[in-house]
Amino acid sequence: MNVLEVKKLMLDDLSDVTDLKTLNDLRVKYLGKKGLITELNSEIRNVPKEEKKAFGQSVNEVRTLFQSNFDEIKTKLEEEELNKKLESEAIDISLPSTKVSMGAPNILEKLIEEVEEVCMSMGYDVVDGPEIEEDKYNFEMLNIPKGHPARDAQDTFYVEGEEILLRSQTSPVQVRTMLKGKGEVPVRVICPGKTYRRDDDDATHSHQFMQIEGLLVDKDISLSDLKGTIDVIVKKLFGEDVETRFRPSYYQFTEPSVEVDISCFNCKGKGCNICKHTGWITIAGAGVVHPNVLRMSGYDPEVWSGFAFGFGAERMAMLKYDINDLRVFYNTDLREVKNFDRKELKNND
Amino acid sequence: MISLEWVKDYIDISDQDLEELAVKITEAGINVEKVISNHIDYLVIGKVISCVDHPDSDHLHLCQVDVGGEELQQIVCGAPNVREGLKVIVALPGAVLPGDFQIKASKIRGVESNGMICALYELGLEEKTDEAYARGIEELSDDAPIGKDPLVYLDLESTLYELDIHKHRNNDCYYHIGFAYEIAAILNRKVTLPDCSYQEIDDNVNKHFSLEVETSKCPYYLAKMVTDVKIGESPEFIQRRLIAAGMRPINNVVDISNYVMLEFGQPLHFFDKDTLGDHILVRDAKDEEEVVTLDGKTRILRSSDIVITDGEKPVCIAGVMGGENTEVTDTTKNILIEAAIFDAVSIRYTASHLDLRSEASIRYGKGLNYEYTMMAMNRACCLLEKYAGAKVLSGIVSHDVVDKSEKVVEFVPEQVDKMLGIRITEEDMKVELERLDFPYTIKDGKFRVVIPKRRLDVDPNVNDIAEEIGRLYGYQKLKSTLPSVGIRRGEYVGDVKYRKAVSKRLRSLGFNEVKTYTLVSPDMSQKFDYEGKEKCVLPNPMSIDKSVVRTTLIPSLLNVYQYNKARKVEDVMIYEVAKTYDKNYQEESKICFLMKGDYVVNPWKGSMKGDFYLMKGFAEDILCYFGFKNRYRFEKASLPDMHPGKSCQILIDRRPVGILGQVHPKVCSDEVYVCEISLQALMQGVKPLKFKEASKYPTIKKDVAFVVDKNVSSSDVEMTIKKAGGRLLHSTYVFDVYEGEHVGNGKKSLAYNLLFMSEDRTLTDDEVMKVFHQIIDKVCSTHSAEVRDK
């Protein structure tokens, strides 16, 4: 065959190709050892000298033409083949996922961790102490001597005589922290922890419950400083528009003592079930640390002053997450808590 | 319960809206929980202008009533005494009478009726007796103002405050005069004390009586005597007020003692002089001493109690309850009035161990103002003279060692300002002290305040004064400031730090945090008792199922599992970190986690089920997370309530720190895995983190399988491999375990992958093969193993 015949046949062959195997076979047919183009090449011997150059050129043109066509078709066919394969691999993306999940925090702990976060940002350490406690730390050093009526309100689980008990409040941790400070260094701690009182368990009572108490002892600390601090905490927890109100109250270890109300975050003060139609919700007890308490823990009340505050974790969590039975904190139904592993970020900055 | 009508005896509050006053009082620190009023809207005084028989009834009347409006109201009334010209009480449509009885305009037997003419019992002001019913509607006198509130006109309107008084204020707000002082401070008005005057007869009480006080727990004891008492009913106002305060009227004498107590807060005791004798001895009780109290019950005393005796036998448990033997009866003529102060702590203790909390013991238990003891005594004499015909003997029998020292506090105004964080002018401070009725003087800018005796709750220090001034000045005037303190970063301290870290890790592994009770039942406390610690048992638990302090969290977590299973939650992964205590109150925080069911869940593709090895992986992750890699071991162990073939101990540096395994099928039939690790064991020094470069040299991999006895543990074989492999052996792991016909009975095949590598050169095949054979020889000889044919 002459060059033109080969070229024509080659173009016809290539135009008929529909799969990679045929394409590869054509490569052998034209470029193999006995391929048609290869054979044209060897015929150069028989071409007259003055035509050799032109002949060589025309054969090369055919070769190049083949190669470029071959490459083009190959790419196209490969693409088609891959597409076919991918198509066959298509799945139903609507089928359910494989579940992997982080565990959720206990709802109370989540609440407590939020308080810890805001308090730590204000320089409060988070500490805990023994749950089986000495009367001395739980009562006496908090200005509640034996026989004091304030003990009645905290119906205590005694463990041994009247000396060892299950702590009825987390305040003993504050005493222990102050004692460690030896009256020399400022104190800034919060003490979230378990506490125990002889209450029958129901929707709003529990023999075991959690308090979050805070204590600051430093110089020139006032009741207004307490108000500002509580403001920061409740705004973080319940929203920036929440207002704080102090009402006079009584606790043995603080003087003056106050009860802290926040404006109802639900109805914004208009009155609803959460605030019992008063517009205000009692959220904490607090006050200026009693001079006797400072003195007993080694801090000279002439030099040092401070404030303390205490939140009930259950009450806070019930308010914040709209829970009406505190037993859910202690009887965990995983379906109820699973949501609580998510963040509550707000893009408000 | 405070009756505002009663308070009006001591302070003028006639201009006050009592609802608003309650808010003011609450804002100043005493919680008025509830305002209870008998006021009824749409209740007016009316005049019957005409009264004719109902056309369709033999007993109903058709009345035209003037109620002060422009038109007369037609009202149908069935009372026999309704008649023309009578002034009556009318409930107009809209009124709601007691029992939620709503008055509406209606038709009665075809005739329109716009309200109801009322009897007192229909307004809840009188008991509904046959007699009251027969009397019919209430007849008001002719001067009753038409259209006005009949309750106000009759002086029957009553408002009660139900208080939630904090412990310290009880002693001055538990009685009406004390409460009047609080209102006086709030409204800046003065209190008038009641009349305490009476005539004395010549006879002197000291002729009839002698007193001896042996106990130190009675600093103040006063007694006066009255004769010729006539027992009868109390005047109506006393009865009404007692009922309002929640006490039952009995007779004039008993009622007076209660009435005075509710006025002054000072409990009184009346003895029948004739059964008492002529001597009183106040002493400590004897253990096991018996006395029959007013309620007819025999009480057994302790030596810590105080008794009033006639010299021999007890006649009264001091401050708690009188004895039956000297009780005032219908025939009593002569009375000895006791007004005393007893040690508050002692009374509280007595009332508590006798389980006898009387009105008196509650008040004694809170402490009393000695100034009122004498006043209350005089007031009782005054009332007995007035309402029981009593003649009061002159003189008084008394024992008085009461501490009368003044409570004085001195301060400069800046001290109060500093404590409150606001500026209160000296003038304002004076105003507040005057409102409080706290006497003061000022010298060189320094206040000197004498705290009145009635305020037992106020101690002589600046804090207390700041509170009193602040609460009246108004806490709403406080600023919101932040303390001026040094900047520092808060941290988790001590075991809290570890608890938080492990908590975070376990959550990220998929475990949900739970919270369970520290107190468990004795039965529960014995479960999974792998440490065999002695338990701390409460001497007086609330109930048996909360009587023991737990030493392990596993039973509690198992309960949470059961709770979820009952609610059809199949896949459970939970954890808790909590403190445990043994008999010696030794604290140990424990980490406990439990798993049952699937870990990675996909019902249509197949899930990954939790098993022993997954739990082991979690435990290892925790141990490595805290830096104990290469320091821990798992050792097969037989543990209580755990599957004997699928449980182990966890050791760090050869010391047991926890357990891991499947719960024994006898305890829980489901395949539940638990792990408990001591948090304390993780709180120890570990190596600091340091970067380590990965080796640049190639690794050479070899496989080998050993046939060993079934009971040979893989970790032992691994240990042998590691020892024999020396430094060139980089790592090794099991990649296949086989038991079955190909290796024979009682045998298993363990296949290991060995990875050789050097940190500083490329290893040759020869040196690797040398070590490889050393390893094979060592394993074969140490564990009677054979190499499984390749």
Protein described:
The complex is a heterodimer of chains A (349) and B (790). Chain A has helices spanning 3-16, 20-31, 36-42, 49-89, 107-121, 135-138, 150-153, 171-181, 223-238, 291-296, 313-321, 334-337; strands at residues 125-126, 132-134, 158-160, 164-166, 187-196, 208-218, 244-251, 254-263, 280-289, 305-312. Chain A is an alpha+beta fold and 349 residues long. The radius of gyration of chain A is 42 Å and the shape is rod-shaped. The two termini of chain A are 82 Å apart. The model of chain A has no long low-confidence stretch (mean pLDDT 91). With 790 residues, chain B is α+β, with helices and mostly antiparallel strands. The chains are: A alpha+beta (349), B alpha+beta (790).
Q: Largest interface, per-chain counts?
A: A-B, 89 and 94 residues
Poorly predicted parts of chain B: none
**SS content category of chain A:** alpha+beta
Alpha carbon gyration radius of chain B = 42 Å
How many individual domains of chain A?
2
The CATH class of the largest domain in chain A turns out to be Alpha Beta
CATH topology of the largest domain in chain B: Phenylalanyl-tRNA Synthetase, Chain B, domain 3
Whole-number mean pLDDT of chain A: 91
Nearest-integer average pLDDT of chain B? 92
Q: Which superfamily, in CATH terms, is the homologous superfamily of the largest domain in chain A?
A: Bira Bifunctional Protein, Domain 2
With helices defined by DSSP (H or I, 4 residues minimum), what is the helix count of chain A? 12
Helix percentage range of chain B: 25-40%
From the alpha-carbon coordinates, what is the Rg of chain A to the nearest angstrom? 42 Å
CATH architecture classification of the largest domain in chain B: 3-Layer(bba) Sandwich
What portion of residues of chain A belong to β-strands?
Answer: 15-25%
Going by CATH, what is the homologous superfamily of the largest domain in chain B? Phenylalanyl-trna Synthetase, Chain B, domain 3
Identify the CATH architecture of the largest domain in chain A: 2-Layer Sandwich
List the strand order in the largest sheet of chain A: 1-5-6-10-9-8-7
- Shape designation of chain A: rod-shaped
The DSSP helix count of chain B reads 23
